[in-house]
């Protein structure tokens, strides 16, 4: 299944330079990873989650649900990173007398 097919089926579209990897982790487990392309042969994991097989969903729906969960985790982690960077402006020593 290509990236376009995953998106057409309902998976969130990723920014350029990012892709989904669906891989088998054991005999009966699948994992969806969102990876950032790093050069021609390397990539970096940015978010992942296991595929949860429900009897009410088809295999494709289970994979798409995992893509959505991985995307939400990635976005939440990015938001936490932005809050951390914003808080960096407060680093340093703080004079208890108000800077005198």
Overview of this structure, please?
With 100 residues, the chain is of the alpha+beta class. Helix content is 36%, strand content 25%. It is built from two helices and three strands. It has a three-stranded antiparallel β-sheet with strand order 1-2-3, covered by helices on one side.
Secondary structure layout plus pairing:
Blueprint: H1 3-9, E1 18-24, E2 30-38, E3 42-50, H2 59-87
Which bin fits the share of residues in helices? 25-40%
The SS-based structural class is: alpha+beta
Q: Strand fraction band?
A: 25-35%
Radius of gyration: 19 Å
Query: Mean pLDDT, as a whole number?
Result: 83
Could you give the count of β-strands? 3
Largest sheet: 3 strands, antiparallel
State the low-pLDDT regions, or none: none
Distance between the termini: 65 Å
**Tally of alpha and pi helices:** 2
Mass-distribution shape? elongated
Task: Give a nutshell description of this structure.
By secondary structure, this protein is an alpha+beta fold. 36% of the residues lie in helices and 25% in strands. It has a three-stranded antiparallel sheet, with helices on one face.
Write out key terms for the chains shown:
100 residues, alpha+beta, 3-stranded antiparallel β-sheet, 2 helices, 3 strands, 25% strand, elongated
């Amino acid at each position: 299944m290509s990236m376009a097919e995953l998106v057409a089926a309902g998976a969130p579209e990723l920014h350029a330079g990012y892709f989904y990897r669906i891989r088998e982790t054991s005999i009966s487990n699948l994992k969806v990873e969102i990876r950032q392309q790093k050069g021609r042969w390397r990539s970096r994991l940015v978010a992942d989650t296991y595929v949860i097989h429900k009897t009410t969903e088809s295999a494709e729906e289970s994979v798409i649900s995992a893509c959505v969960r991985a995307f939400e985790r990635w976005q939440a982690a990015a938001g936490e990173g932005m809050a951390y960077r914003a808080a960096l402006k407060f680093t340093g020593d703080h004079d208890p007398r108000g800077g005198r």
